[in-house]
């Protein structure tokens, strides 16, 4: 995850992917004056089916999940007026829980129970949970009770980003 302000490049913010995957160091967009976008790893693959693509007709981009929880830390400077999480999800039958700094801020949309079912979810306003300094985004799978072999819902999240207004 990288972050920049204006045209200054990355600021060396520390990202933490507790799930063991790699980070997407694609940079930060500044689509308009006063807007900053922090991009997180993409795709984020969580669940408990370690060979999803081998046992299903539909396929995720990443076969083996990072675990049932994804977490990444990032630093913010002062001066933002709002923050909104935006993302696309695939394979969600049950709503994954999304946390910012330990507080539940929302649940994912549910496009359907296949890797082919993708949907851009409604944005989540996280303004009240953000702070200057270190922040942590966490996404947690939930139980899909009809499945007693791999009971956690396997999902893939694309283009997870935090859009800040300054």
UniProtKB/TrEMBL annotation:
Compositional bias (Low complexity): 1-16
Record-given protein name: Uncharacterized protein
Annotated InterPro entries: Galactose-bd-like_sf (IPR008979)
Disordered, as annotated region: 1-40
Gene3D superfamilies: Galactose-binding domain-like (2.60.120.260)
Biased composition (Polar residues): 23-36
Organism ancestry: Bacteria, Pseudomonadati, Thermodesulfobacteriota, Desulfobulbia, Desulfobulbales
